[in-house]
Amino acid sequence: MSNTGVVGYLEQPESTELQEYELPTPKDGDLLTKIVRANVCGSELHIWRGEHPLIRDGALGHEALCRVVETGGEVRDNAGQELEEGDLVVPAYFATCNECARCGRGQHQYCENAYKYWSRAPEEWPHFHGTFASHYYIHDDQYVYKVPEDVDETAAAAANCALSQVLNGLDAIEVTQGDTVVVQGAGGLGLNATAVATERGAETIVIDGVANRLDRAEEFGADHTVNLTEFETVEAREERVLELTDGLGADAAVEVTGVPAAIDEGFQLLGNGGRYLVMGNIIPGKEATIDPGKAVRKSIEMTTMMRYAPWYLQEALEFLSEHGDDYPFGELVDAEYPLADLQDALRDSANRTVTRAALIPE
Ligand SMILES: [Zn+2]
Ligand SMILES: [Zn+2]
């Protein structure tokens, strides 16, 4: 076995290279893993293009399925299962320090040190800080779970991002049996939200402007779809949602478009007492006109979400174990690249010639 591995490094916007480093020996409680497959996620493209508010360079990649190569002594996953060489695991891509004020208050999803390992320079030990790499180092303050055997590998590789966040988010707005839920946007988060809301017994209405994304939404459980090219104005979409909800408006809505104007539209599509989860607009500096009176007149409860409480990763794996076969999670990845073609995978994803790229180390 070779004693070195490679890690994808962003030197400057849109320019990556693979750098070779000696494999680290894991410290007590840590894990050295080999990447089985990693996904190119939308937020990674923001960093790649230089749009991220904080990150300009460093190791890239956060979604992955990993295989344990070496454990630092006896290591258990956060469900208490002992981990051994060869086990498939997924890590939370952020740390939960248990030392900061937020962790102290039980608000682990807002840990002040969440990104302490994220996008570090590869020359810094233990080098393998990102998942666009041959190996990935998992620290003892990152949640990690063993992957159940019946979970599809492609689906498992994405569990630590969209699905975990959606499960936490839909809990935050208490989506439950009998709710009508509008999902604004049929990208990765939107499709996951549609499947989870469906499993919770909600009726879903998915809005998007691309017909094949809406077809996909139907495969993920959408009861109704609204195409922006057919319902061109906010008023037309409001009318359609009222028609589908006996004139009441939706009980809950999930914004996963990244389009600022979608928020004001959400106020219009929700009914009285509507619960609104906004999590697609993650880039600061974009603006839209919002009419707060629309929200207040309906007593709309609005919440936002970044990341997720780390134990939702376990729930994500359980969701895939129970319901993974009912939805085409595996088909969300439409292109695979060898790790050596990292730059192509990022460029094709940025140009949208592929929807979801996976990187497979040799
Ligand atoms: Zn992601
Ligand atoms: Zn903390």
From TrEMBL:
The keyword Metal-binding applies. Coiled coil: none annotated. InterPro entries: ADH-like_C, ADH-like_N, ER, GroES-like_sf, NAD(P)-bd_dom_sf, Zn_alcohol_dh. GO terms for biological process: protein tetramerization; small molecule metabolic process. GO terms for molecular function: adenyl nucleotide binding; anion binding; metal ion binding; oxidoreductase activity, acting on the CH-OH group of donors, NAD or NADP as acceptor. CDD domains: MDR_TM0436_like. Residues 11-359 form the Enoyl reductase (ER) domain. It holds the Pfam family ADH_zinc_N. Keywords: Metal-binding, Oxidoreductase, Zinc. This is Zinc-binding alcohol dehydrogenase. It comes from Haloarcula mannanilytica.
